[in-house]
């Protein structure tokens, strides 16, 4: 065995080794990467060569043993896995709470896909998602079949009859009647990771299905801060559901006698997502981590440490940096391109009481609010390079930052004040593209798919043209409304306006109705404010408050009706946009945590969070500052509910026209002479009050709450007795 050390004459030149074989045949190999080959040295003898890495040193081995060369090249790749560790979690959540302020700031959740049933025609390859009603039937019957099969000693028939004359064979996963179909049942966990170990390799494959961050502050401009953007419906891709939000795959070769890591394969994929931030969230997060100024002694100690570093020789610092920054070798490193939808607003910030704050709210909001600005950042890739951890992080950061800076023009073209023309043009392009592309893709698969592709293409074109134009005008008028509302100098008016803006309408009718109501109330509030604002100011601050209220009333007389007109146009156009593009807003995973002032932090209760949200939304937040939520009982699910606070008993219902909750009737606890009692229909609430809080007069002095569930009756009666006793003490 012979060994020869070699160094490059030109380290910056190409790392290529050229050697001559039989009959002066030249062979060339790139020594940056692992490779293998062979050549003839004479008529009969063949020599094999292999290039591999040994720490930081590249080794080229020449041998007549083909097995030795092949083993040195494929070490770790063809080995069987000795140990495999698999982690699977359906989901998890992380809540960030500011304890002193009794407020939850954000909630981060990782969730699974849920159980998905898909069906496919016999002989076809494209699976379609089963309708929700049929999916629930299939899952219920499938779980019943599995339970029977696990406990029965005799064979259980896999053929099951469902509603609508549907017959299914769960063993073969196919539908037999009324038409033959193949079924596929999938469940993607929220977090899945697999780690495989061999003698000379380490393999990691991990997936994160869905990541969502919700803003839990009251009255957020954007309820959802971060969430994946669902891919558009297409004939080519079908309705197979969302792909994992993040996926990483790593293959590492383990080399003995060295700390250098060689990554044969390193790939990270991140799906399209949106980021929506407002100043209220930024201020809340900054409040969680207040900056503490250094004491004089701490500053002196830090100065002494810096002085000691400055006295060290430069050679020593360079040697320490080189020794501590270990380099690794990456055969194939690929970080996926990023497509990010960015939205930002100065809204949500409450601590701007000064004149500067007023100017920022009136002018700055108009000029800086932007919605759905798209950044497209290209992929980052490196092949056959030594990189330290610090170098890698710096290069990745510079790569994506430089691309983002090159696309800063989309920020200007995406401002709401000019209607986001960039988004409008991109949308029109996408609509025309779908009109031609989707029918063509469908025609390849069959006549039914052609009709579906034509429908998708036409709907996309109409949605992006009509919806895009309406959305552009809605953004312009919405930005004007922001500025006019800020100029009214009325915080209560701005708060009520934010409440309406932050609750998207359920349909076109509700959107138009709410816009019309806002127009009327803007005129009414403007006129009444001339008389009410001076009185309110005098009651709070005396003569000074009277004149301040007089000024607010005079400004509001112009600003409020004008803002109402502008908001009417903005809301109507936004409702048309939502109806045209058939878009669905991403909803929060759960309501904000309820944190009573006297209880501190405690485990999350969905029931309490749901009840507190109803109290917060009731009559535009009229009772949230005076009452404390205690309990609630559903009378008609999602429609009518009995709400108990520390001061009153309320019977409320959801307003189907304008959205939100409204009071049908209610009593203070002091107006109920006796503890409510159970009757046949439900619970009877006596009262000394002769008129209800709502619009309709009462012919008797009590109310009957219709409840048939005995547990609900007992719970409501216990809460009434407890709260009445507390109110009288």
Automatic annotation (TrEMBL):
GO biological process: protein retention in Golgi apparatus; protein targeting to vacuole
Start and end residues of each Intermembrane lipid transfer protein VPS13-like C-terminal domain: 590-709
InterPro entries: VPS13 (IPR026847), VPS13-like_C (IPR056748)
Protein family membership: Belongs to the VPS13 family.
Protein name: Vacuolar protein sorting-associated protein 13
The organism of origin for this protein: Eumeta variegata
């Amino acid at each position: 065995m012979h060994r020869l050390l070699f160094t490059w004459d030109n380290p910056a030149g190409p790392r290529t080794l050229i050697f001559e074989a039989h009959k002066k045949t030249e062979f060339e190999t790139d020594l940056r990467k692992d490779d293998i080959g062979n050549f003839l040295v004479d008529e009969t003898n063949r020599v094999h060569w292999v290039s591999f890495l040994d720490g930081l040193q590249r080794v080229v081995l020449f041998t007549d043993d083909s097995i030795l060369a092949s083993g040195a090249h494929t070490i770790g790749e063809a080995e069987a896995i000795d140990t495999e560790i698999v982690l699977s979690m359906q989901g998890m959540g992380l809540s960030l709470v500011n304890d002193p302020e009794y407020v939850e700031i954000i909630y981060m959740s990782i969730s699974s896909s849920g159980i998905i049933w898909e069906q496919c025609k016999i002989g076809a390859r494209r699976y379609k998602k089963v309708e929700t009603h049929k999916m629930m039937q299939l899952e219920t019957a499938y779980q019943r079949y599995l339970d029977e099969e696990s406990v029965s000693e005799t064979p259980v028939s896999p053929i099951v009859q469902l509603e609508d004359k549907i017959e299914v064979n769960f063993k073969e996963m196919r539908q037999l009647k009324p038409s033959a179909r193949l079924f596929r049942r999938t469940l993607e966990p929220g977090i899945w990771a697999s780690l495989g170990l061999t003698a000379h390799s380490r393999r990691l494959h991990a997936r994160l299905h869905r990541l969502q961050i919700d803003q839990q502050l009251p009255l957020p401009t954007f309820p959802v801060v971060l969430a994946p953007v669902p891919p558009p419906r297409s004939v080519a891709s079908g309705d197979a559901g969302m792909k994992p939000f993040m996926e990483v795959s790593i293959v590492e070769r383990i080399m003995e006698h060295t700390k250098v890591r060689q990554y044969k394969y390193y790939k990270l994929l991140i799906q399209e997502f949106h980021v929506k931030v407002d100043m209220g969230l930024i201020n809340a997060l900054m409040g969680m981590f207040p900056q503490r100024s250094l004491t004089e002694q701490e500053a002196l100690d830090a100065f002494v440490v810096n002085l000691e570093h400055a006295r060290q020789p430069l050679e020593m610092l360079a040697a320490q940096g080189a020794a501590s920054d270990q380099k690794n070798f990456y055969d194939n490193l690929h970080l996926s391109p990023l497509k990010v939808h960015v939205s930002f607003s100065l809204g949500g910030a409450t601590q701007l009481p000064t004149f500067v704050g007023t100017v920022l709210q009136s002018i700055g909001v108009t000029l800086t609010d932007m919605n759905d600005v798209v950044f497209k950042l290209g992929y980052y890739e490196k092949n056959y390079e030594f990189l330290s951890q610090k170098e890698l992080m710096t290069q990745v950061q510079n790569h994506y930052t430089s691309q983002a800076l090159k696309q800063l023009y989309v920020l200007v073209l995406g401002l709401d004040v000019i209607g986001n023309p960039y988004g409008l043009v991109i949308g029109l392009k996408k609509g025309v593209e779908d009109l031609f592309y989707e029918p063509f893709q469908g025609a390849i698969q069959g006549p039914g798919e052609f009709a579906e592709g034509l429908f998708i293409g036409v709907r996309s074109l109409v949605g992006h043209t009509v919806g895009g134009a309406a959305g552009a005008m809605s953004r312009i008028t919405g930005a004007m409304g922001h500025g006019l509302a800020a100029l009214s100098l009325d915080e209560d008016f701005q708060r009520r306006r934010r409440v309406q803006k932050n609750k998207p309408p359920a349909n076109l009718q509700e959107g138009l109705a709410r816009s019309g109501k806002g127009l009327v109330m803007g005129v009414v509030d403007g006129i009444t404010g001339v008389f009410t604002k001076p009185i309110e100011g005098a009651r709070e601050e005396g003569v000074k408050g009277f004149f301040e209220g007089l000024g607010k009333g005079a400004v509001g007389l112009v600003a409020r009706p004008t803002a109402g007109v502008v908001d009417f146009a903005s809301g109507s156009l936004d409702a048309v946009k939502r109806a045209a593009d058939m878009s669905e807003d991403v909803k929060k995973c759960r309501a904000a945590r309820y944190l009573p002032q006297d209880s501190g932090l405690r485990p999350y209760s969905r029931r309490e969070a749901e009840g507190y949200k109803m109290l917060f939304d009731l009559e535009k937040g009229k009772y949230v500052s005076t009452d404390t939520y205690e309990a609630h009982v559903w009378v008609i699910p999602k429609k009518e509910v009995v709400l108990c606070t520390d001061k009153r008993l309320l019977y409320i219902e959801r307003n189907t026209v304008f959205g939100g909750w409204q009071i049908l009737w209610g009593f203070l606890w002091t107006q109920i002479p006796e503890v409510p009692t159970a009757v046949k229909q439900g619970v009877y609430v006596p009262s000394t009050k002769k008129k209800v809080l709502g619009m309709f007069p009462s012919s008797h002095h009590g109310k009957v709450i219709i409840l048939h569930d005995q547990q609900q009756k007992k719970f409501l009666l216990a809460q009434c007795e407890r709260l009445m006793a507390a109110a009288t003490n």
